[in-house]
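Archive record:
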Amino acid sequence: MVELRSFTIFSDLKERDLEKLRSTIKEIRYGHDEIIFMEGAPAFGFYLIFQGTIKIVKRSLRGKSQILKIIGPGEILGETTLFDKGSHNAYAKTLDSAVVGFIERGDFFYFLERHPKVIFRLFKKLSEEVKAFQNKLAERSYASSKERLARLILCLGESGIELSRTELAEMAGVSSKTAIRTLSELEERGIISIESRKLQICDKDHLIRLIEPSSLNLDGNLII
């Protein structure tokens, strides 16, 4: 389980300031496959991921799902509704057991007023995620399904996160049928191996050749 100082936005705080922040955090433990918040639910605060892996998912009116991102220890959750006091536009669900810290919006704003440098680090992090989402949106226009899946496999292979084939399809933005066909092809060619939900990269160089290079480097516990 990571410490509070492991979060990028709090990394420069002094110990006494971290202690003040800790006093406002309510620790919540979740099991595997549990909902942290529902899409459309009112947002009351801000979450810190101390342990575990969480997926953030958007559902359409027709019931189709798109995994927006996957986050792990040291990442934040609920930041999109922190300043507008609106409702959650996606739902958050654990992929394994997790420990999450919750801070009420008022308490967090009170802390930010006294530690304005945290705001700049928070905005920097948010801007990096916006760029990543812009890249992903553009990729949907020009990249093949194989290229999108290859990029995702490279990210997952380094993180150790296990996803089902359906979840891989939802995250890459392709149909389940396309994902299964492409994954089977890569497996038959010895580029990857899949046992149950565990995905292993056998030929990393081949996957790298399939994708367009990106200059954007996100934290290891954030996959978009």
